[in-house]
Amino acid sequence: MSALHDLIARLPKAELHLHIEGSLEPELMMALAQRNGIELPFKTVEEIGAAYDFSNLQDFLDIYYLGMNVLQTEQDFFDLAWAYLERAHADNVRHVEIFFDPQGHTEREIPFATVIDGLTRALEQAETRWGMSSQLIMCFLRHLSEEAAFETLEQAMAHIERIDGVGLDSSEMGHPPSKFERVFARAGELGLKRVAHAGEEGPPQYVYEALDLLHIDRVDHGNRALEDEALVKRLVDSKMALTVCPLSNLRLCGVERLEDHPMKRMLELGLVATCNSDDPAYFGGYVNENYVRTAEAVGLTAAEIITLARNSFIGSFLPQAEIARHLADIDAVIASELA
Ligand code: ADE
Ligand code: ZN
Fold first, then answer.
1. pLDDT > 70: what percent of the chain?
2. pLDDT of 81
3. Cβ of 197 less than 6 Å from ligand 1
């Protein structure tokens, strides 16, 4: 293992941008399709993998929504989340903030409770077994209406103690943050954290809207903020964390080559950038793979890799004392590397 691989493997990390439905590996998709008698337009795991050839976000989302049809029972949601948590644990992830898309399931008549019960059972097992902490962020699908988002928030009320935040995902272009201003205001009144995908494909204007109208606590992606100098300054000055997802950006053609990825520039500008996997089953790598391949492609230094790991806790929604504990664990790894 190279020195960089070794450092990345040893560093404690948090993952802050992970769609649990995007961690559905082709093998589990096939197994759940069989278990539940669901017809898929693919016959083999290889055929599924071959379909993952995307030119943009919408190409991916079409297959992502198709894939999630196999998720039917509480056990399915447990199995999905447990498979991800085992991978995250193997990558030395100590804390996860997981997105889920309730509307992707309730639209198919799967009860909200089935989804959240299966996910939280897996998260509790990870806490008990490994001391891995977690939060759950419920995303609104932005291609659906404001009214549908309000209905989803209403359904969530019976489980609100298990939900830490709301997010905004799905097709960005043509669905600006302003469409969800009122539902995010309501989420804020409920004491929920607020995040939104912005600047993944959409223009800097969408990042401004997410900040000014949705009052977000963190930006998901944010790559296109780099096109606007004043916006970069604002994000730096306010220490706003960005959950950047390099292999996702590559597979969805936000960058042509990983060598062109702006991660190093983001760090040099002083942005609180973090490194995450987004939808690892679809984009070819869990969190450590994102760190390693990005570090190799854009030439991250050991100090920049450590900054990414530190930022993952600093940008998390953990209490300050917990953040301090994780940062001390990072310091201990660095001290042992130097010893
Ligand atoms: N849903 C799952 N992954 C997503 C992404 N990268 N962007 C928007 N919506 C998503
Ligand atoms: Zn995402």
1. 100
2. 99
3. yes
201 among known catalytic residues = no
pLDDT in tens, 69-123: 999 999 999 999 999 999 999 999 999 999 999 999 999 999 999 999 999 999 9
Please name the residue whose Cα sits nearest to atom 10 of ligand 1: 170
Site of tokens 């030395």:
92
The answer, yes or no, to whether any atom of ligand 1 lies below 6 A from the CB of 201, is no
Which candidate in 97, 200, 201, 209 is catalytic? 200
C-alpha 73/C-alpha 69 separation (Å) is 11
Quickly count: other Cβ atoms within 10 Å of residue 282's Cβ. 27
Q: Which of 17, 20, 64, 219 to mutate to test the pocket of ligand 1 (most atoms within 8 A of CB)?
A: 64
Domain positions in the chain: 3-23+74-338
- Distance (Å, whole) CA 33 – CA 36: 5
Helix or strand holding residue 288 (H, E): helix 287-298
| Separation between Cα atoms, residue 230 and residue 239, nearest integer Å | 14
Element (H, E) at 116: helix 112-130
Please answer whether residues 252 and 57 qualify as being in contact, where contact means their C-beta atoms are separated by less than 8 angstroms.
yes
Ligand 1 probe mutation, 19, 54, 59, 252, most atoms within 8 A of CB: 19
pTM above 0.90, yes or no: yes
Which residue lies with its CA nearest to atom 8 of ligand 1? 170
278 lines ligand 1 (CB under 6 A): yes
CATH number of 3-23+74-338: 3.20.20.140
Tell how far the Cα of 58 is from the centroid of ligand 1, in angstroms.
9
Give the C-alpha distances (Å, rounded to integers) separating 336 from 62, 191, 307: 46, 40, 17
Q: Is 132 in the pocket of ligand 1 (CB under 6 A)?
A: no
The residues of the chain scoring below 70 in pLDDT are 1
